[in-house]
Design a protein that fits this description.
By secondary structure, the protein is α/β, with parallel strands linked by helices. It is built from 28 helices and 22 strands.
Length: 765
C-alpha cells in the first residue's frame, strides 16, 4: 500500500524562509543566500518524507511567495507595468508582482479558497502573450533526483489557473480568462516534456476549482485541456488532485472520465459526500489517492476510523490502486510537534502537526497492507479517549449560554441612520473622517520588549512603561498628522488572534506553531480545545490609557468571533457555529466593559468573515446566518452613541454585500485598493449602503508610498457611488508589516488628500 503527501509547509521549523526572504528584500543578503536557504529547506523536507516511508513525495510545491504566482512566472504572464522584456523571470520581477515596487503597485492578493493563505491573482487579457519563462518545476525535480529522491512534480492545473485569474486592468470585465486555455497549454506541454525527459514517472495537477459550483462550459474546459495534453502526458502517470470540499456529482463525472488521467485525489475529511460518489462508481484500473488525514487542522487522526474508511475503499478500487494521502497540502498546519515546549503533555498527545501527519499517513498505508503497528494505533486510541473525557474541554455554563443565543437575533434597537446621527452629535467629526485600521509598525525594539517580558527578563513595571511610551509615540504621531479617529497602535499584541486567545479559556498556544499566510508573513494560530469564556477584561486597560492621552476619539480594538474562529485551529468535536457563539459572548462582555470605560468608538474586526464562506453555494446561507449573528451578539447591548466599527480585508466581498449590511455595524472599513477597487462596482450596480464605509485608499502590503493625487483620485471615485456623509478615508489594512519611513509619508498624503477634497466640496457648495 502506497502513501502520498499533497504538499508540505515551506517556511521551515524555525521560519528559516521567512527570515531569508526579509533579509533579501531589505538588501541585507543576496539571491544566492536566499537560494541556499531554500535549497537546504527543500532537501530537509524531501528527506523527512522519504525517511518516513512516503512513496509519492511532492516537488515544486515550495515557493518564495505562492504557487499561483509561480505558475504566472512559468507562463510568462507578467503584466506590462513591470516592464519585463522576456527571458527567465528574475526575482526582481517576481517580487515586484507580489509586493509592488517604488514605481508600480503589486498585483491583487486574495484568499486561497476558504483558507487564511493568500495568492497573487493573475491578470490576463486577450493580448496576454505566454512563454515558458520559469523552469522552477524541472529544476526542483532534478534537485531532488540528485539527492536520490524521485518526486512527483506538482503544477497548478491549467483550468484552475485560469478560473482563479481576472481580467487585466483596461480589459473588459466580461472577458473570460478561460478563453485563453488553448494559449497556455503549449507552455504546459513544454514543462511536461521536460519533466518526462528528466525521468519523472508521475505528475500532479492541482485542480481545486473542481470542488466549486462550476457551469457546464467550465467543466467542458477540463475535458478539453486534458484531451489536448493527452499525447504529451503519454508515458506518465497523471494525478489530478482536488481538496477543501466535496466534488459535485457532475464534476466527479467529468474528472473520472478524463482518459489521460491515471489517478484522482479527493479530500475525504471535508468532502465526505465524495466518499459516496467513489463507492457508487469508480473507473476500473485507476488509482484513488484517498485524503483521509486532515491537512487543515492539527488534531491527531482517528486512525481506527480512517482505517475502516480505507478498507471500504479498498473493496471498491482494489488494494494495488488505493493510495493513502492527506486531505490537502500540509502547508495549512504547523510544522512539527517536536519543537513545542509550551504545550502540556495532555494537550500535546491530542495533536499532530505536519511531521506527525506524515507518520500517520504511512502508518495507515502499512496497516491496510497488513503491517499494522498495534502499539502506535493503541497510543492513538488512548489519546482520543483522553480528549473525549477530559474535564478541561467542557464548561456546562458556557454551553448553556451559547445554546440560549439562538432564541434572539441580537439586533440593536434603533436604525443605523439614527445611531449615526447620535454618534455625530457626540463625536463631531468632519466629513470624510480619517482613521487607520488598528496596528502601527512593529519595530525590532517593540518585539524585543514583548519577547523579554514573556521570558521574564524584564519586570511588569518595565514592560508597562515601554508599552505606554510606544502608545504615546503613536498617539502623538496621529495627532501631528491630524488623523480624526485614533488607534493605540496595538504595541502589546504580536498577533490579533493570539492576543485574545491567550486571555480566553479553552485556548492553548504553541511556541513554534507557525503557518504561512502569504509571502514571508507567518501566523501562529491558537488551538481551541475546549469551551470558550472570558475570565477577565482583555483590552480595557490599554484602551483607557490611550484615550487618556488625547481628546480625539480613540478606537477600542477587538478581533471578532468569526475571525478568531477562522484564524484558529478549531476543535472538531462540535459544530463550528457552537464555538463561534461562545467566542461572541466573550467578546460581548469586552465590548460592554470598553463602553463603560469611556471608549466611544469600538472596532470589532471581522477580517476573516468572507474567508470562511463555504465553497458550495448551497451552504452559504447557513454559514452567513450564524456568522453575521455572532457579530451582532458582540455589540447588541451598547448605547446608540457608541460607534461600532468592523474591518474586512483581502477577499471578494461583492457576493456577500447583503450579509455585510445585515451585520448592522455603524462603520465598516474594507480592503479596496489592492483589488483594483472591485468593491466599488457593487455600489455602481445599485446596492444602497446607509452605514459609514471606508474602502481602503492604499495598499499596506506593498512598500510603495502612494501620492496625495493618487489617493484623492481614489476618494473621488468612491464619492461617485457613495454619499459624502458616510464615506471614511483609511488604508486597506493595519500597518504592522510596514516601517515608519513608509507609514508617515503615506498617512500624510492620505490626510492631505482628504483635506483637499473637503475643501473642494465646501467650495462647490
Amino acid at each position: 500500500m502506497a502513501s502520498h503527501i499533497v504538499g508540505y509547509p515551506r517556511m521551515g521549523p524555525k521560519r528559516e524562509l521567512k527570515f531569508a526572504l526579509e533579509s533579501f528584500w531589505d538588501g541585507k543578503s543576496t539571491a544566492e543566500d536566499l537560494e541556499k536557504v531554500s535549497t537546504d529547506l527543500r532537501a530537509s523536507i524531501w528527506k523527512q518524507m522519504a525517511d518516513a516511508g512516503i512513496k509519492y513525495i511532492p516537488s515544486n510545491n515550495f515557493s518564495h511567495y505562492d504557487q499561483v504566482l509561480d505558475t504566472t512566472a512559468m507562463l510568462g504572464a507578467v503584466p506590462d507595468r513591470y516592464s519585463w522584456t522576456g527571458g527567465e523571470i528574475t526575482l526582481s520581477t517576481y517580487f515586484s508582482m507580489a509586493r509592488g515596487n517604488a514605481t508600480v503597485p503589486a498585483m491583487e492578493m486574495t484568499k486561497w479558497f476558504d483558507t487564511n493563505y493568500h495568492f497573487i491573482v493573475p491578470e490576463l487579457g486577450p493580448a496576454t502573450k505566454f512563454s515558458y519563462s520559469s523552469h522552477k518545476a524541472i529544476n526542483e525535480y532534478k534537485e531532488a533526483k540528485a539527492l536520490g529522491i524521485d518526486t512527483v512534480p506538482v503544477l497548478v492545473g491549467p483550468v484552475s489557473y485560469l478560473l482563479l485569474s481576472k481580467p487585466a486592468k483596461g480589459v473588459e470585465k466580461s472577458f473570460s480568462p478561460l478563453s485563453l486555455l488553448s494559449s497556455i497549454l503549449p507552455v504546459y506541454k513544454e514543462v511536461i516534456a521536460e519533466l518526462k525527459a528528466a525521468g519523472a514517472s508521475w505528475i500532479q495537477f492541482d485542480e481545486p476549482t473542481l470542488v466549486k459550483d462550476l457551469e457546464s462550459h467550465q467543466l467542458a474546459a477540463f475535458s478539453a485541456a486534458y484531451s489536448e495534453l493527452e499525447s504529451t502526458l503519454s508515458g506518465l502517470n497523471v494525478l489530478v488532485e482536488t481538496y477543501f470540499a466535496d466534488v459535485p456529482a457532475e464534476s466527479y463525472k467529468t474528472l473520472t472520465s478524463l482518459s489521460s488521467v491515471t489517478a484522482y485525489g479527493f479530500d475525504l475529511v471535508r468532502g465526505t459526500k465524495t466518499l459516496d460518489l467513489v463507492k457508487s462508481g469508480f473507473p476500473a484500473g485507476k488509482y484513488l489517492f484517498a485524503g483521509v488525514v486532515d491537512g487543515r487542522n492539527i488534531w491527531a487522526d482517528d486512525l481506527a476510523a480512517s482505517l475502516v474508511t480505507l478498507q471500504s475503499l479498498e473493496a471498491v478500487v482494489g488494494k494495488d490502486k488505493l493510495v493513502v494521502s492527506t486531505s490537502c497540502s500540509l502547508m495549512h498546519t504547523a510544522v512539527d510537534l517536536v519543537n513545542e515546549t509550551k504545550l502540556d503533555d495532555e494537550i500535546k498527545s491530542w495533536l499532530a502537526f505536519a511531521a506527525q501527519k506524515v507518520v500517520e499517513v504511512n502508518a495507515l498505508a502499512k496497516a491496510i497492507a497488513g503491517q499494522k503497528d498495534e502499539a502506535y494505533f493503541a497510543a492513538n486510541a488512548a489519546a482520543l479517549s483522553s480528549r473525549r473525557s477530559s474535564p478541561r474541554v467542557t464548561n456546562e455554563e458556557v454551553q448553556k449560554a451559547a445554546s440560549a443565543v439562538k432564541s434572539s437575533d441580537h439586533r440593536r434597537a434603533t436604525t443605523v441612520s439614527a445611531r449615526l446621527d447620535a454618534q455625530q452629535k457626540k463625536l463631531n467629526l468632519p466629513i470624510l473622517p480619517t482613521t487607520t485600521i488598528g496596528s502601527f509598525p512593529q519595530t525590532v525594539e517593540l518585539r524585543r520588549v514583548r519577547r523579554e517580558y514573556k521570558a521574564k527578563k524584564i519586570s511588569e513595571e518595565e514592560y508597562t512603561k515601554a508599552i505606554k511610551e510606544e502608545i504615546s509615540k503613536v498617539v502623538k504621531l496621529q495627532e501631528e498628522l491630524d488623523i480624526d479617529v485614533l488607534v493605540h497602535g496595538e504595541p502589546e499584541r504580536n498577533d490579533m488572534v493570539e492576543y485574545f486567545g491567550e486571555q480566553l479559556s479553552g485556548f492553548a498556544f504553541t511556541a513554534n506553531g507557525w503557518v504561512q499566510s502569504y509571502g514571508s508573513r507567518c501566523v501562529k494560530p491558537p488551538i481551541i480545545y475546549g469551551d470558550v469564556s472570558r475570565p477577565n477584561p482583555m483590552t480595557v486597560y490599554w484602551s483607557s490609557v490611550a484615550q487618556s492621552m488625547t481628546s480625539r476619539p480613540m478606537k477600542g480594538m477587538l478581533t471578532g468571533p468569526v475571525t478568531i474562529l477562522n484564524w484558529s485551529f478549531v476543535r472538531n468535536d462540535q459544530p463550528r457555529f457552537e464555538t463561534c457563539y461562545q467566542i461572541a459572548l466573550a467578546i460581548k462582555k469586552e465590548v460592554e466593559d470598553l463602553e463603560a470605560g469611556g471608549i466611544q468608538v469600538i472596532q470589532i474586526d471581522e477580517a476573516a468573515l468572507r474567508e470562511g464562506l463555504p465553497l458550495r453555494k448551497s451552504e452559504h446561507e447557513f454559514y452567513l446566518d450564524w456568522a453575521v449573528h455572532s457579530f451582532r451578539i458582540t455589540n447588541c447591548g451598547v448605547k446608540d452613541t457608541t460607534q461600532i466599527h468592523t474591518h474586512m480585508c483581502y477577499s471578494n466581498f461583492n457576493d456577500i454585500i447583503q450579509s455585510i449590511i445585515n451585520m448592522d455595524a455603524d462603520v465598516i472599513t474594507i480592503e479596496n485598493s489592492r483589488s483594483d477597487e472591485k468593491l466599488l462596482s457593487v455600489f455602481r450596480e445599485g446596492v444602497v449602503y446607509g452605514a459609514g464605509i471606508g474602502p481602503g485608499v492604499y495598499d499596506i502590503h506593498s512598500p510603495r508610498i502612494p501620492s496625495k493625487e493618487e489617493i484623492a483620485d481614489r476618494v473621488n471615485k468612491m464619492l461617485a457611488v457613495l454619499d459624502t456623509n458616510i464615506l471614511w478615508v483609511n488604508p486597506d489594512c493595519g500597518l504592522k508589516t510596514r516601517k515608519y519611513d513608509e507609514v508617515k509619508p503615506a498617512l500624510t498624503n492620505m490626510v492631505d488628500a482628504a483635506k483637499q477634497i473637503r475643501a473642494e466640496l465646501a467650495k462647490a457648495q
